[in-house]
Amino acid sequence: MKATAKVVYEGNLRTQCTHMQSGSVIQTDAPTDNNGKGEAFSPTDLLATSLITCMQTIVGIFCQNHSIPFSHCEGTVEKVMYSDPRRVGELHVNLDFSENKWDEKTQKKVQKAAEACPVAKSIHPDIKLTFTYLF
Fold first, then answer.
1. CA distance 89 to 82
2. Which residues of the chain fall short of a pLDDT of 70?
3. Which of 76, 89, 117, 129 is most buried, taking the most CB atoms under 10 A from its CB?
4. At residue 22, what are phi and psi to the nearest 5 degrees?
5. Which residue from 51, 40, 47, 52 is spatially nearest to 15, judged by alpha carbons?
6. Quick check: 68 and 106 in contact, CB under 8 A?
7. Where in the chain is the domain with CATH 3.30.300.20?
8. Mean pLDDT across the chain, nearest whole number?
9. Is residue 93 a contact partner of residue 52, using CB atoms and an 8 Å limit?
10. Dihedral over Cα of 101, 103, 107, 56: its sign
11. How far apart are CA 36 and CA 64, in angstroms?
12. Contact 97, 88 (CB under 8 A)
């Protein structure tokens, strides 16, 4: 099995993560509400961010495979933490596809593709997912 990433704990609740294939580097930091400085993505921020980036990527692949023009998408994701145990309890994703001018049939297909992304299908069912689309 080939490693996806190498992660080094740098101290002070910070890690450096290197993507093995590309060499791309990101850092994580514990959030301010959990003993950290909040100076970088937290591990749970990465979970939330991976959901929205996966959705956008899968829409891109879907549109490419079906010859659907796809020029732009912006979005936000809100992570809601729960306690006892401390965990991600909710993820609220907002995606703005309004620059693409799709008909209603295409919009429904894009929405279905987005919500079937691998990250969404990997998130524990106890995490409440809310998706809002602007077309």
1. 5
2. none
3. 117
4. -105, -20
5. 40
6. yes
7. 43-134
8. 97
9. yes
10. negative
11. 41
12. no
Instruction: Supply the pLDDT for residue 1.
Output: 87
Q: Are 90 and 128 in contact (CB under 8 A)?
A: yes
* Signed CA dihedral, 119, 111, 26, 45: sign only: negative
Contact 62, 109 (CB under 8 A): yes
> Tokens in use for 14?
């910070």
Residue 60 in tokens: 């891109």
Tokens of 130: 């809310």
Length reported for the chain: 135
Residues 6+ apart with CB under 8 A from 17: 5, 6, 7, 25, 26, 27, 28
pLDDT digits (tens, 9 = 90+) for 20-39: 999 999 999 999 999 999 99
Residue 52, token pair as written in the block: 């929205």
Range 43-134 classified under CATH 3.30.300.20: yes
Q: Which two tokens stand for residue 27?
A: 């850092």
